[in-house]
């Protein structure tokens, strides 16, 4: 504490106080909360509308739009649009923007000033000290801190954009899976009816002695397997529809939405993407986010090195009274400075450097994973297309010709009804396998599209167990 008179230079210093508070007051919240960039990316990448339900008017608009889309059987684009508007988890994540922006605004504001007062009395003698100080060091470091928070805010925007795109991709996959499950259930029911007819005919023929117990047991076995497969198909259909319902954020009567009866047809040609890795490096948001995090930590490391010795400097006007209460105050200023006697800031710098190097290697890992994931997604897409095309152009038509020939042979009494029923089961199984291969193709396409924009949740390789079922059905 000093009681020197205020010099002109000190007066100029004190005059900076209003400017400091004026500068700090410039940090305000944006009108859209940073949501505009996410909206623009969603529109540009997937052509869909986004809305952040922050007000009753926003929520009412979402309700009207969802009701409008649910009034007819859902297309895949309608399903994605409903999910992006109505998914409660996504809406909750949007408020991460509010949290991040609050940190950004807070970084642009100085800490509140401090007022301290000391008062002592001995008889008629008084000692009173009053000081009004603010953190000058915060003003010095404010531009760097604000820049760091801007980067973090941008990173939050990218993360939410990626979550939005991921939800769109998962909704597409769930949509195709739900339709395929409906079709599979329908065809499995046909197999069960065919097996039931064969079992009933075998029972009657065995009763009159025209059918052996082995043959009857075989038909009963076909029927038992078909009934079990129907139960499994029913459970799979329920699970697939409920997954889609959760992604759409629907409940109650709205959960009774309608889907098309069949999957979209296979396109004539598959996409040819020879530069798929380069596209992923240019477009993937997780790669960009990793770079952003690394840059932010590098900036933070520079700040940490700057502040390793000095953590706080407080400066402000002060006045002191010593003696009688009638005596004038002595005016001056007070400076408070933390001295690095025990902590020289080396631990902070070491932590910042470790965090930075960790981010560097994670960014490299992200790039390696992105290349691998997009290769896997593209190969899965092409192989799924080839498999579905083979079913469509070879297996299903072949089974149909066999069925027509067997029908002619049955009409000519060359084969019996059991051979005809077995062939019908085999034909239905081949159609069911084509449905599953078509479903796998559309899911693989959704995975590929997501792999070009961000980290995908790649689906498992197509299941080949139906080959054995088909063979058994045709036995």
Describe the structure.
The structure is a single chain. With 475 residues, the protein is α+β, with helices and mostly antiparallel strands. Helix content is 68%, strand content 8%. It contains twelve helices and four strands. It has a four-stranded antiparallel beta sheet. α6 runs antiparallel to α7 (213-248). It is elongated and about 130 Å long. Residues 1-17, 19-25 and 464-475 have low confidence and may be disordered.
Spans of 5+ residues with little confidence (pLDDT < 50)? 1-17, 19-25, 464-475
Report Rg: 36 Å
- Assign a percent range to the helix content: 55-70%
CATH architecture of the domain at 263-308 and 346-475: Up-down Bundle
Tell me the structural class: alpha+beta
What's the SSE pattern?
HHHHHEEHHHHEEHHH
CATH class division of the domain at 263-308 and 346-475: Mainly Alpha
DSSP helical segment count: 12
Strand order of the largest sheet: 1-2-3-4
Q: Which homologous superfamily in CATH is the superfamily of the domain at 263-308 and 346-475?
A: Outer membrane efflux proteins (OEP)
Mass-distribution shape: elongated
Spatial separation of the terminal alpha carbons: 101 Å
Largest sheet: 4 strands, antiparallel
Count of distinct strands: 4
CATH topology term of the domain at 263-308 and 346-475? Outer membrane efflux proteins (OEP)
The average pLDDT value, as a whole number, equals 78
